[in-house]
Write a structure and sequence with these properties.
This protein is α+β, with helices and mostly antiparallel strands and 386 residues long. Helices cover 35% and strands 34% of the residues. It has helices spanning 2-25, 89-146, 152-181, 183-205; strands at 32-34, 38-52, 55-59, 64-69, 76-77, 82-86, 210-212, 217-222, 229-230, 235-241, 245-252, 264-269, 277-284, 294-300, 313-329, 335-337, 340-347, 350-355, 357-361, 364-369, 376-378.
Length: 386
């Protein structure tokens, strides 16, 4: 009887021990993974902004002060629409003065051409006529004098009249030449030309005081306020075209060299992981931003989703490393230690800690050395130290 009770007690102890072990190790599941090789394309997640394909920074072409801003950032504008205006009071006053100076110069030249010149021409014509008459009379008197038909006094009077008329003719000719081609006329013509040149220059400068949309676009940035003083090349606004949307991606500089032109991308609305469209990279910048540590990457959109608003933020998945016959290990199988990466390799009933070499990626670790296909690895046990 005692032996029977002892046997029952031993059975109960064994059952208790087994139950305790089951209870203690229920949550410590060890998962095994038989590794396989497959072509791997790394996924890079980044943020981007929906923009127009054509982008411009509108800058000032002149010194001045911002007088009016007609449209703000986010506004859609048609080509040629007036966005802002600089103060034009001074240049408009200069234009009015230049117009008055030009009119005065033209009037002076007109007076010379319509009054002084005709008077001088008339004086010359009269002097020429008088000279020709006196010359003819002199020749007649000279002939009579030689034949002793008239006195020397009569002859000398005609000779004196001829000389006087010749002098009058010479003076009239010089006066006419002076008005036609002399310094006064040249000065009048020079004044007209310089006044016209100044007026043209001012009128050509006036449009620089106005800021117009270069094409159908929307305003993405505004850099000035009313009253700001600006100079040549001061940035005023940024605009983006509305004819075709693209995605502008700020890519972390650590991914430089991993992406390439014509790589496929996927673009998702910021708060929606279900909807997306595909596209391709068509531009990769070469400069790294000192402020953000990113490079500029631009991609096309195959479809324009209604959620893709101009200036809106989107999520973008890009293709990174492209590795043939890669071994991708999920993060949960990795052990990080002293800056190195290890895995637990199953070796029969035992496990071996093995260092592996590879590339950290968003969905795990791509092993390039330290593990072969068909080998089995296990996830580390919770709380265990390796």
């Amino acid at each position: 009887m005692k032996k029977k009770k002892l046997f029952v007690g031993i059975i109960l102890v064994i059952i208790s021990i087994i139950g305790a072990k089951l209870f203690l190790f229920t949550d410590k599941k060890i998962q095994g993974l038989r590794v396989k090789k497959a072509d791997y394309i790394e996924k890079i997640i980044s943020s981007g902004t929906i923009e127009g394909k054509e982008n411009s920074v509108l800058s000032s072409g002149i010194d001045g002060t911002i007088e009016k801003i007609f449209l703000r950032e986010g506004s859609f504008v048609k080509q040629g629409a007036l966005i802002a205006k600089l103060d034009t009071k001074q240049i408009e006053a200069e234009i009015e003065k230049a117009k008055a100076d030009l009119e005065s110069s033209r009037n002076q030249l007109l007076k010379s051409d319509t009054l002084d010149l005709p008077n001088a021409q008339s004086a010359y014509d009269t002097a020429l006529k008088n000279f020709e008459i006196s010359k003819k009379e002199y020749e007649q008197y000279e002939n009579l004098y030689n034949k002793k038909y008239i006195t020397e006094l009569d002859y000398n009077q005609k000779k004196t009249t001829l000389i006087q008329n010749q002098n009058f003719l010479e003076n009239a000719k010089n006066q006419l030449n002076s008005i036609e081609n002399g310094a006064v006329r040249k000065l009048s013509i020079s004044n007209v030309n310089s006044s016209a040149h100044l007026l043209t220059s001012l009128e050509n400068t006036l449009p620089k005081y106005y800021v117009y949309a270069p094409y159908d676009s929307y305003i993405t940035e505004r850099y000035v306020e009313v009253g700001d003083t600006v100079g040549p090349y001061t940035n005023l606004f940024s605009v983006s075209s509305v004819d075709e949307k693209i995605v502008n991606i700020d890519l972390d500089e650590k991914y430089v060299g991993r992406v390439a032109i014509n790589d496929s991308i996927e673009i998702y609305p910021y708060y929606d992981s279900e909807k997306f469209t595909k596209g391709k990279i068509y531009f990769i910048g070469i400069d790294v931003s000192n402020l953000t540590g990113t490079i500029e990457v631009k991609g096309t959109l195959e479809n324009d989703l209604k959620e893709f608003l101009y200036g809106g933020t989107v999520n973008v998945i890009l293709q990174g490393h492209k590795i043939k016959d890669a071994i991708l290990i999920p993060e949960k199988y990795l052990i990080k230690k002293s800056g190195k990466t290890f895995i637990l390799k199953q070796n029969g009933s035992s496990k071996k800690l093995v260092e592996v070499i590879g590339i950290p990626v968003i969905d795990g670790f791509v092993i390039t050395s330290g593990l072969e296909t068909e080998e089995v690895i296990v996830s580390p046990e919770e709380g265990e130290k390796y």
